[in-house]
Structure formats: structure tokens, C-alpha cells
Amino acid sequence: MPNLGLYVWAVVAVxxxxxxxxxxxxxxxxxxxxxxxxxxxxxPEYERALRLYDDKERAEDALGSRRxxxxxxxxxELNPAERDRYLLEWMNIRAAAPNDPVSTLxxxxxxxxEIMRAEGSRTVDPLEHRLDIALIHPxxxxxxxxxxxxxxxxxxxxASPEECRRAVIRFSNIFDSLLGESDLGERLRKAx
Length: 192
Hints:
By secondary structure, the protein is an all-alpha fold. Helices cover 82% and strands 0% of the residues. It contains 9 helices and no strands. The chain starts with a helix and ends with a helix.
């Protein structure tokens, strides 16, 4: 009989160890899936968050909060008519660039804000606007940060004509990305 008790304890210990290993494997798989989804959804902003927080878990928690905000906004792609209208408006703005880069930058920034509102962003605060661009369009976030910095410098009368010219080029890249073939819908589907 003592061997039966020892056998039962051995079976219980092996079963407990198996459950622990299974639990660890499930947790690791869930973390890996979360990481993959955040990388798909946020692209280069994922790496930026890792550098900013210097801790993967904190960075992913912050990106998880952004993801919730994205879901709450009800973000959606522009329809073809909206895309065409904004493209025409951008072409008109860009045509003025050589003669008036200051006005071009301000008008481009306003057009971008209008596009973001059409996609579901409700913010009017410039700092939140930058966050929403990083959230909704992470591939253009760096371009926008650089162009926006020039606009800030321009408002303080510190930007050079060359900086303004480069910022207009950045806006061209931004609008090419936004008004071309969008990957927003696909990213949102993959990350859900």
C-alpha cells in the first residue's frame, strides 16, 4: 500500500508540473501574439516606444492604451470620393509652395487635420493631433513630427526658407501616403 500512495503523489506532482508548463507556454504565446499585433498596428512607432520607455512591457502597455484609444475613435479609411477631394485640395495647396512656403505649410497642416477628422480623430489640440497621427498612421508619424517642428519654428520666425522647403516635401510624402493606397483598414483587421 505505501507504494500506491507514493505513486499517487508522483502522478499529482507530474500533473502539477505539466499544468505549470502549459500555463507558462500559454502566457508566452499570448505575449508573443500581443507583440506581433502591436508591431503590425504601430509599425515604426513600436520601435520608437521601445526606445522611449526602455522597457518592453512598459512600451507595450503604453501601445496597448493607444490601441484602446484607436478602437474608441472608430477610425476608418477615407472613401474614394473623400480621397479624391483631399487629393485635389492638396494639389492646389502644393501649387502655391514655390511662391509662398509659409502659407503652404499652414494650409497643409490644416488639411492634414481635416483628413484626420474625416478618418475619426476628434482632437483639436496640436499635441494630441501628433499622437493621433502616430496612432492612426504610424508610417508617416516621423515625417509629420519633422514638418510640425518646422511649423513651430516658423511661428516663432526661426525657420529658414530651406527648412520650409523640406517641410513642404515632407507634407508631400505624408499626403502621398495618406491619399494613395491606404493600409489602414488592413492593419486594423490584422491587429484585431
